[in-house]
Amino acid sequence: MSREFMRVRTEDLLLNPTNRVPIALCLDASGSMNGAPMEELNDGVCLFFEAIQADPIARASAEVAIVAFSDTAETLIDFQGLDRVGNPPTVMCQGGCTDLGGGVNLALDRLEARKQEYQKAGVDYFQPWLVLMTDGQPTTQEHMQAAPRTCKMERAGKLVVFPIGIGPAADMSILAMFSEKRRPLRLQGLNFREFFEWLSKSVVRVSQSRPGEKVNLDLEGIKGWAEL
């Protein structure tokens, strides 16, 4: 991470002390996502960014990180305001393996680093969100360490986890390991746009509340993108 990027992130917190909503998108970029699934995923992420940027409160509050995982895990963008990002980076299929646990651990590591920056700057923040999306099974064992980590944070009120399966081959039992409060949901077909539209509305709703305040998500809206 460059010194210039760190300077800009620190400056953002000083110039804009709005309560932050950190959202980590942890996305499967393995070879099985190639073609229409990856195209629809990228379209959905773009819609998500556009919807957040269109709401003045959410635009000032939301900070998004994108981690892609395949053979290895990679941070495509680290936590920062969407005004700095503009258009999101395109997620590209990288390899045939699925290092799901590595992706989750990397996302949580970046989150912990950003939380320290919030605290140092005196900026309050809402419960961070982790959106985990995969279409298969992990090909490494790192999820055995990552899943207890997410559950521990969830129990402590330090993380909200959304485990999402893509397609019939997604191993929902593995995804279930990452949250004790929310069962994994399987996406209806390739309804990525519907999911990210729902997610953006949820972020807007949270950004209009106060940290620690209970916010009810749109459960009815889940029917538009999930198999229930």
Description of the structure:
Helices cover 43% and strands 18% of the residues. By secondary structure, it is an alpha/beta fold. The chain has a single domain (29-66, 73-227), classed as 3-Layer(aba) Sandwich (Rossmann fold). Helix 6 links the parallel strand 4 (129-134) and strand 5. It is globular. The chain starts with a helix and ends with a strand.
Task: Fill in the keyword field for this structure.
228 residues, alpha/beta, Rossmann fold, 7-stranded mixed sheet
Largest sheet: 7 strands, mixed
- Average pLDDT for all residues: 95
Name the structural class: alpha/beta
**Name given to the CATH architecture:** 3-Layer(aba) Sandwich
Broad shape:
globular
Biggest sheet strand line-up = 3-2-1-4-5-6-7
Layout: helices, strands, pairs:
Blueprint: H1 3-15, E1 21-28, H2 36-54, H3 56-61, E2 62-69, E3 73-81, H4 82-85, H5 100-121, E4 129-134, H6 143-155, E5 160-165, H7 172-176, E6 185-187, H8 192-207, E7 226-227
Parallel strand pairs: 1-2, 1-4, 4-5, 5-6
Antiparallel strand pairs: 2-3, 6-7
Brief synopsis:
This protein is α/β, with parallel strands linked by helices. The protein has eight helices and seven strands, in the order αβααββααβαβαβαβ.
